[in-house]
Design a protein that fits this description.
Its main location: membrane. It is found in: Cell inner membrane. InterPro entries: AAA+_ATPase, ABC_transporter-like_ATP-bd, ABC_transpr_FbpC, ABC_transpr_MalK/UgpC-like, Mo/tungstate-bd_C_term_dom, NA-bd_OB-fold, OB_MalK-like, P-loop_NTPase. The protein has about 350 residues and is an alpha+beta fold. It is built from eight helices and 23 strands. It folds into two domains: about 5-235, Rossmann fold, CATH 3.40.50; about 250-350, Nucleic acid-binding proteins (OB fold (Dihydrolipoamide Acetyltransferase, E2P), Beta Barrel). It has helices at about 50-55, 100-105, 115-125, 140-155, 175-190, 200-205, 225-230, 235-240; strands at about 5-10, 25-30, 35-40, 65-70, 70, 85, 160-165, 195-200, 210-215, 220-225, 245-250, 250-255, 255-260, 265, 280-285, 290, 295, 300-305, 310-315, 320-325, 335-340, 345, 350. The longest helix has 18 residues, at about 175-190. The chain binds adenosine-5'-triphosphate. The site of adenosine-5'-triphosphate has 11 residues, from helix 1.
Amino acid sequence: MARITLDHIRHAYGPNPTSDKDYALREVDHEWNDGGAYALLGPSGCGKTTLLNIISGLLQPSHGRILFDGKDVTNLPTQARNIAQVFQFPVIYDTMTVYDNLAFPLRNRGVAEPEVDRRVRDILEMIDLMPMARRKAQGLTADQKQKISLGRGLVRNDVNAILFDEPLTVIDPHMKWVLRSQLKRLHKQFGFTMVYVTHDQTEALTFADKVVVMYEGEIVQIGTPSELFERPSHTFVGYFIGSPGMNVLPAKLDGNRATVGGETLSLDYAPKTATGAKTELGIRPEFIRIGREGMPITINRVEDIGRQKIVRATFEGQPIAIVVTEDSEIPAEARVTFDPAAINIYANSWRVGREG
Ligand SMILES: Nc1ncnc2c1ncn2[C@@H]1O[C@H](COP(=O)(O)OP(=O)(O)OP(=O)(O)O)[C@@H](O)[C@H]1O
């Protein structure tokens, strides 16, 4: 397995790019650890597949270099990069048996038959297809075929990285959960470097130890699930992670005070922002207390979502969401307080840290 260095990578599909808008990837400059499980998460069109294809060698970046364990592989084709890939739709040989499909990548590299057998059996157990081992892949369901594709991605233990491009799209919801957990377990056991593309936050948060959030061709944050939840680096991460997402309210700042509409709140630090920056206050719905004390709100709607309720309200002319437990009392003249430790301040959409 390898450490992956993305050295100032930019990519434009068209010729002669002039501005940032012409780039599908604007600037990616990061180092991903050997053995890390990374999920690339972001909305459609943000550049996830472009970045994955640059790592796999299907695409040459317009600028920058890509290195595996310090070795420049930018000009190497996919076959020479020694990676395994699992795509959205099954890529298998219909006329081969399930067993032979899984054995193929190993036999192709001259692995001895007893070792092939040991590894194929391990994978068959994992993907739960042992009873089908001797059947032709033809005639299996889309679900089962995709499990074979996953198995083929995992069967070799000598690859630099395993790349997954939305591999669970065709898998039914229950099986999705099972396969995701198995992937996570395998990762712990074997320490593969894994890069997993998805636009589904649950999938990213359960699979990865580091989630790479992309937005408009940029990586806006790489963090653990709790870092993304507690300290979103960019307002987009705040909106995108969490359900409902973070409340982002226009705020005027003065030392350690923030004013939203006519209400002034005390912060537990004094954010430093450049003059003229667009400043906003971010607070997750889970960290707003509702009761008879604090700042007045107007409640518009209460949604029951099982163990919790989402209160949709208006605060100083802005829509906000508040998450409370199902047994919480919501007074008619409701008021709110924000937990100061959970407030994030943003200048031009980027978080202004306590350290800054
Ligand atoms: N072959 C191509 N030629 C021109 N533009 C492209 C090409 N492939 C992608 N793009 C553009 O590059 C941008 C990034 O696309 P990309 O497919 O990497 O996004 P994505 O995050 O993977 O989206 P999705 O989740 O829909 O697959 C988009 O604006 C897309 O329209």
